[in-house]
Amino acid sequence: MMAPHLEVLALPTTHRFQRGDDLAAELLRAADIAGITLLDGDVVCVASKVVSLVEGQQVALPPASDTEDPRQGRRQLAREHATAIVADAPWVLVTRTHHGFVAANGGVDASNLAEGEALLLPDDPDASAAHLHERLAERTGARIGVIISDTFGRPWRMGQTDVALGVAGTAAMRDERGGTDLDGRPLEVTEAAIADEVAAAADLVRTKSSGTPFVVVRGLPSGDPGTGADLIRPLAEDLFATGGPTAVDHGVRARRTIRRFDPDRPVPTDLLERAVTAAATAPAPHHTQPWRFVRLRDRTRTRLLDVMAERWRADLRRDGESPETIDRRIAASDAILRTAPTLLAPFVVLDGAHSYPDPRRTDAERDMFLLSGGAALANLQVVLTAYGLGAAWISSTLFCAPTVREALDLDASWQPLGLIAVGWPAVAPEPRDEPFATDLLIDR
Ligand SMILES: Cc1cc2nc3c(=O)[nH]c(=O)nc-3n(C[C@H](O)[C@H](O)[C@H](O)COP(=O)(O)O)c2cc1C
Fold this sequence. Notes:
It contains 12 helices and 17 strands.
C-alpha cells in the first residue's frame, strides 16, 4: 500500500478579477488551461483577494497628505472596520474584524490595486466558500471542498502563513482528543487546524506576484465538513485579546474604584501577593523599598475601624455636623470598610529618608516617600484589576495617623496612605469617560 501523500497543484491565471466575475467559471477555466480535471474530494484553496474583488470589497483609501506615511490610510481603514484594537504600536496595527479575525491592519489589502483603492476581506468568507462549493458541484458534478485563505502573521512566530477564513465541503478541524499517542498515552489537547494546514500547503506553490489565486490540494483524507468560523477562538477564551503596548495601556485604563464586592468570594492570597510585589516595583527615593501593606485580620480590622470612627465622630462634632449626618457618613464608610473581603492598610516607612535641619527640606523628603506610596498603590490596583479583582482606596487613615499607629502598634516613622478595600466586584464597573490630554498636558 502506498504511504499517504498529497498533491498540491497550482492553477495560474492571467485574468484580472473584478466585481461581478463568475469565480467558478474562472477557476474551471484555469484548471482547464493547467490540464487538470477536478475530482471528488479535491479541495481548492482560493486567495481571499480574488473573492473580495469579485464581491466588490474595494473601498477608497483615505487620502494621505504628501508628508504622511502612506501606510496611514490603510491603518485608518482598518480602524474604521475594527471591532477591537488588539495592538496599536507605531510599527504595526493589529485589529479584530467583525468576523472575529485578528490580523495586521484588519486584513485590509492595498497591493496590486488601482491607485487610491484598498480591499477589505470578504464580508462572509464561509458563505463565499459555500457558494463556490455549490457552483462547482453544479458544473462538475463533483464534491469539491473550498477554502478561502489569506496570509496572516502569528503571535510568537516569525513570518506569515496562509490561514483559512472560509471553509465549505471539507474539514476545518480534526479533533484528536480522546485518542492516544503511539505509546498509548491519551491525547488531551490535540485539535489539528486542518483547514489552516491545507491553506498553508497551498501557499507553497504560489507567490504573491505569480497570479495564482487557485490551488488544488488532492489526496486529503475525508473528514466532517467544517467552517472557517470553527477556527476562530471565542473572545471569552482569548487570553491575548490585546497584545503588546496596547495590553499595558488597556490594563491601566481598566482600573476603576470598586465600592461593592461579592461578599462570598474571598481574595486569594497568591493574587494579593502578586499585586503587592507589583506595587513594590514603583519608583522610590534613594533606592529604598518604603512600602508596607498590613492585611487587617478580623479582630484587628474591627478594633481599628472602631477607634477611627470615634476619632472621626469627634472631628465631625467639632465641625458642627448633626448626629444624623455623622451617622450617615460613618455608615457609608463602614459599608465598604467593614464588609470588603480583604482590607489592606498601606504605609510608607521613612527609615531611608535623609534628615535635614529645616522643615522645608524635611517636608519635601517626606513628600517624596508619600509620592512613592501613591505610585505603589496605583500599581497594586492595576494588577488587582488585571486578575478581575476590584479595589477602593479610602482616605480614612490619612486623617488620623497617630490613632492608626497606636491601634496597630507601629512606630512614628510609618505614614499611613489610607485603606485599600479589595474583593471581587459585585457588578462590572461603568466604562470610563476618558479625560482629554489637551486639558491635562500643558506646554510652557
Ligand atoms: C488618596 C485617595 C483617597 C481616596 N479616598 C476615597 C474615599 O475616602 N472614599 C471613596 O469612596 N473613594 C476614595 N478615593 C477614590 C476616588 O474617589 C476615585 O479614585 C475617583 O472617584 C475616580 O474613580 P476611579 O478610581 O474609578 O477612576 C480615593 C482616592 C485617592 C487617590
